[in-house]
């Protein structure tokens, strides 16, 4: 499809800023649901005068139907909050192999170091078939971007789903300024080299097709450079610069949103569940293997064992929202989270006290209510690109909260000094940290929380996005 949109700024990501469901009750009407997050607020920050387009993939039947009904490939702007969005209807099987197969079962696992050898990984003929789909999926993005972009436009390609697209796009359109941004950690070379050599080289060369490859922390940027040296030989090609842009919480939006009536209502309901005068340990995650929810629960169980004085006095409010349920290993993990929570409640619970309040149905207003009620925030991922929850809870907690934080989260680089830091595998150490956090004197907790909140909002999403855009032009950054 030839396009005349001539966009000056383009964003490309697997998941776009809007998703659709078909409402069978109202004769097949499409319902659009807008998402939030850093990219959405970042792109809106460039202002209405810049001609921008967001290219993303159709992720389900509703999305595919929306693409079929879309005019000239762009979704209706009333569905997108004014943004120009081109959704790609990539063949469902190709998308499944690229997204579930390569992106989420291989690349996500490599960068978060989640494989459990000796059973995984196995790179066989099935993997090669999925890899071909990943190439086709990346090519579909590169071609759409090449069609949409005006001469010399800036293109910001996001994440591990699209590691090959920068080089493909460069070949199609040498005039463009191309950036790639990784929202995940980057694996160290010894782990990255689990991948077959040709695939490892393809992934790195794909990203190096960009003018600038950027990461959330220096640690992940250094790991990327180390992988380039180990796999491709010494030296990053002179045409590619490596950058770091930490992403912070959207303080203005969150503070306002967290004081709207629906959040107040949910706070009242949560207070009832928790019970008068009890402390809260709050966590909010996708039910994601890398988030380490089960070890968090085991640490809480050990806290109740080691420190019986906390029984009846504390509640672990754990929100674990469904994620990537097409993958069996995620479904199994979700079941395990529920099993361990139930086991703790059965073992310690009393008629007036439920030790773990686990909620699995996604509800943003309720998450914000929990943030406001938090005395302790538990953020203990095995590895995490950044982790915005670690930034958002101290920002919103009404009384100030203590943060128990994994040293393997990107946020550790910015928040480590005022957090209680844990090795995410060390359940006993995490139980000790929870005890320390619950025992912090109120004033110290409030002081630390204030400093955490200041650090958390230092790089709001709009700034994060604009910095990347400007850095594309600035040869020295
Ligand atoms: C991480 C990735 C994002 C992804 C998100 C949710 O944050 O970096 O690219 O969109 O997880 O995962 P999902 O598979 O649901 O898009």
Automatic annotation (TrEMBL):
<dbReference type="InterPro" id="IPR001830">
    <property type="entry name" value="Glyco_trans_20"/>
</dbReference>
<dbReference type="Pfam" id="PF00982">
    <property type="entry name" value="Glyco_transf_20"/>
</dbReference>
<protein>
    <submittedName>
        <fullName>Trehalose-6-phosphate synthase</fullName>
    </submittedName>
</protein>
<comment type="similarity">
    <text>Belongs to the glycosyltransferase 20 family.</text>
</comment>
């Amino acid at each position: 499809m030839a396009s005349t949109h001539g966009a000056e700024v383009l964003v490309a990501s697997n998941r776009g800023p809007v998703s659709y469901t078909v409402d069978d009750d109202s004769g097949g009407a499409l319902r659009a649901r807008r998402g939030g997050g850093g990219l959405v607020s970042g792109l809106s920050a460039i202002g209405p005068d810049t001609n921008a387009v967001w290219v993303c993939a159709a992720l389900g039947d509703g999305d595919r139907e929306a693409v079929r009904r879309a005019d000239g490939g762009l979704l209706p702007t009333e569905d997108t909050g004014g943004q120009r969005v081109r959704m790609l209807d990539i063949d469902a099987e190709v998308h499944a192999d690229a997204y579930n197969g390569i992106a989420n079962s291989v690349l996500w696992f490599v960068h978060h170091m989640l494989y459990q050898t000796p059973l995984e990984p196995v790179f066989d003929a099935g993997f090669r078939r999925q890899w071909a789909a990943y190439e086709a999926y990346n090519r579909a993005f590169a071609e759409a971007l090449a069609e949409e972009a005006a001469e010399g436009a800036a293109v910001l390609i996001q994440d591990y789903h699209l590691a090959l697209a920068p080089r493909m796009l460069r070949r199609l359109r040498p005039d463009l300024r191309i950036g790639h941004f990784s929202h995940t950690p980057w694996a160290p070379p010894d782990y990255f080299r689990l991948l077959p050599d040709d695939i490892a080289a393809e992934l790195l060369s794909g990203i190096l097709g960009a003018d600038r490859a950027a990461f959330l922390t220096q640690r992940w940027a250094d790991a990327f450079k180390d992988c380039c040296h180990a796999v491709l030989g010494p030296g990053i090609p002179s045409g590619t610069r490596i950058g770091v842009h930490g992403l912070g919480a959207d303080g203005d939006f969150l503070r306002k949103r967290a004081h709207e009536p629906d959040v107040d209502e949910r706070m009242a309901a949560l207070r009832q569940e928790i019970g008068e005068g009890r402390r809260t340990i709050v966590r909010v995650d996708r039910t994601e293997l890398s988030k380490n929810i089960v070890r968090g629960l085991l640490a809480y169980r050990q806290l109740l064992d080691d420190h019986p004085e906390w029984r009846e006095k504390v509640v672990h409010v754990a929100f674990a929202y469904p994620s990537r349920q097409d993958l069996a290993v995620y479904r199994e993990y979700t079941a395990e989270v529920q099993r361990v929570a139930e086991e703790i409640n059965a073992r310690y619970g009393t008629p007036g006290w439920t030790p773990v309040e686990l909620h699995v149905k996604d509800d943003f207003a309720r998450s914000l209510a929990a943030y406001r009620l938090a005395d302790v925030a538990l953020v203990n991922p095995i590895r995490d690109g950044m982790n915005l929850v670690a930034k958002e809870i101290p920002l919103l907690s009404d009384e100030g909260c203590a943060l128990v934080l994994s040293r393997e989260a990107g946020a550790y680089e910015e928040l480590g000094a005022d957090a209680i830091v844990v090795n995410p595998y060390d359940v006993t150490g995490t139980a000790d940290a929870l005890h320390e956090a619950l025992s912090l004197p109120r004033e110290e907790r409030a002081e630390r929380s204030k400093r955490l909140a200041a650090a958390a909002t230092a790089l709001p999403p709009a700034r994060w996005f604009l910095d990347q855009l400007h850095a594309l032009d600035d040869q020295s950054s």
